[in-house]
Amino acid sequence: MKLVQVKNRKLNLGAGKNWQKDGWEVLDHSMKAASCGLKEQAWELPYKDFSFDCVFCSHMFEHISHFRIEKVICEINRVLARDGILRILTPDLKKIASAYVNNDRPAMELYIKEDTSGIKTTLGLGQAMLNFILSAGSDNYLLSSDLSTVICGYAHVSCYDYEMLSGVLMHYGFYKVRQCNIEDSEIEGHTELREGAYNKDANHTLVIECRKKEFIPFSDNTSLLRTGPYEFRHLLPQPWVLKSLRLLGRLYNLYGHISSKCPEKLKNKLRRAK
To answer: For the chain, does the N or the C end have fewer beta carbons within 10 angstroms?
Structure first.
């Protein structure tokens, strides 16, 4: 990798559909905001090496499978300048699990109130803990073994504590890794980097900051999170199958974007035309 000069470029990765701020670039998989282009996924960032001095990720990591998160961290490392800062916010597995194990209903109810996604406790605190780790959504899809049926869609698909996430970060070339509170940051103006209040979920959020020391590429042989082998490639024998699935996903997102912008009168006309 060739070291190049960076002029204080900053990236908010997974910023959401409406967030914008001068001096920050935004990359999000959602097409519902004009500022968010239809880009590659977080493990295929469309930027050159050493492009940014700072990367901020708020509640994005839990939406990415452990099968991909190491590649995401490697990509963030790649696009960061030497000694660049990475700040991560994500649900804290230790806090959530502790509330469950200790039957601490007040703590769990506080976390649920902060989350606002409709987490349930109908079947007890175990149900709430599971909903924090696996939640309904459209970021990830679970397919049947023959790829013929979509079983369900997920938003959250993973959860980390400090020991896990800091270990992965150091493994892939980050140093000065530290856990901090929501108020503490080396990033100027960090309280303005989220939709809504910056501390809206402070009680159950894990906050980590670190700096890039060196670039270490991902390798299946040195993966920390994969327990493999993952024998699935035989289900996708042709590259065009993968491309078709990706295209279908993009068309689905495009349809949702158009539908959300389409006036109700026009929708009714389209229905009658059918």
So the answer is: C
